[in-house]
Design a protein that fits this description.
It is a single chain. An eight-stranded antiparallel beta barrel has the order 1-2-5-4-3-6-7-17. The radius of gyration is 23 Å and the shape is globular. It is mainly beta. It contains one helix and 21 strands. The chain has two domains: 12-282, Immunoglobulin-like; 290-357, no CATH class.
Length: 358
């Protein structure tokens, strides 16, 4: 009788752990959800095009050709009236190789897109996904491989029916070389001209431990905020924190961009987007290049890089940029993904150490 009980217990344990153990191979590196209004197909009901972006480790054999998008109004409980889910098929899968640190192997990862249109009647909506599981060995998240990846986006279309979420300017994952100035930010573009505020958040996981997940609720993981970066609340720029040394490895950080709109004379929060990403901290003898000068609209003299540039709506601005590399014999390359996000933005290389941003 004791043997029978033991085998029943082992079988139950295997059934409970099975989904988690199988999920180890997924190695999710991050994600985000964005939205934009599209033509309504039902009178009086706003309709949105929703894009979910997942960052994945290409060395994993696991795949997610279909994800579940949770659309919750008011409460995240599955039983709340009006809440619904929709299965979304992957529309695009691409590989990206980051430059990384000199003398190290480039970081290669996949970016998967999942796109769908949804009707969201007037209310306060939270759009979310839960995918299993996170990458193993994240230094600032103990037991990361046992945590699901939960990301959410919020919109209040009772205040602003015609609203596009902020869009991040880059899909490149961050990296850190010997605590030097980094080459990444959480800066975003808002097509409606809403005011944006940036803040760090603890990465989240689903509150549901069942498989499949039965609710769209999230909760902070047992992790810490990034130990390496400060986040500018007005611009989304990341600045490295001074430290004599860093522990090399993979870390996780999450940031939220909240948009505010002036409605009836007061600023109201109308939505937010959360991005959850991992980054690599590694050692390198290379020194990062730096911008050394900026000339505004053909000015004869440069101005400080930190000086505020005031621009009026519709005004054309030209920024002549100069850069230098402290390591002898290094060639510079100017590159940005922002022109693919901000209409009319252009970056042109004008010399070996110069570029023009208009």
């Amino acid at each position: 009788m004791r043997t029978t009980t033991r085998f029943r217990w082992l079988a139950a344990l295997a059934l409970w752990l099975g989904p988690l153990l199988a999920a180890h191979a997924t190695h999710l590196l991050g994600g985000e959800i964005t939205y934009a209004p599209v033509a309504s197909t039902t009178v009086g009901v706003p309709r949105y095009h929703v894009i979910t972006r997942l960052f994945r480790d290409p060395n994993s054999s696991a795949d997610s050709p279909v994800i579940t998008l949770y659309c919750n109004r008011g409460s995240c409980a599955a039983t709340t009236a009006g809440n619904f889910t929709i299965n979304v098929v992957r529309s695009q899968d691409s590989s990206i190789s980051s430059l990384g640190c000199a003398g190290t192997f480039p970081r290669i990862y996949k970016v998967s897109l999942y796109e769908t249109d949804v009707d969201l009647p007037t209310g306060q909506w939270t759009l979310s996904i839960t995918e299993a599981n996170r990458a193993a060995g994240l230094i600032n998240m103990p037991g990361s491989v046992y945590n699901t990846l939960y990301v959410s986006t919020y919109l209040d279309n009772s205040l602003a029916a015609q609203d596009s979420s902020p869009r991040f300017l880059s899909t490149l994952l961050p990296y850190l070389c010997n605590n030097q100035a980094q080459r990444y930010s959480f800066s975003a573009f808002d097509a409606d001209g809403d005011s944006l505020r940036y803040e760090f958040r603890l990465p989240e996981m689903s509150t549901s431990f069942s498989v499949p997940v039965v609710s769209g609720c999230g909760t902070p993981t047992s992790s810490t905020l990034s130990p390496h970066f400060m986040l500018n609340s007005a611009t989304g720029a990341l600045t490295t924190l001074p430290a004599p040394s860093i522990q090399q490895g993979i870390y996780v950080m999450a940031a939220r961009v909240t948009e505010y709109r002036r409605i009836n004379g007061s600023w109201q929060p109308i939505g937010y987007v959360t991005r959850d990403v991992t980054y690599v901290a590694t050692g390198s003898t290379n020194q990062n290049p730096e911008f050394t000068g900026l000339r505004l609209n053909g000015a004869a003299t440069t101005q400080p890089l930190t000086q505020l540039i005031r621009v009026q709506p519709g005004q054309t601005v030209a920024l002549a940029l100069e850069a230098a590399d402290p390591d002898a014999g290094q060639a510079l390359r100017f590159e940005s993904q922002a022109p693919g996000v901000i209409p009319g933005l252009n970056l042109q290389t004008t010399g070996a150490t110069s570029a023009l941003l208009t």
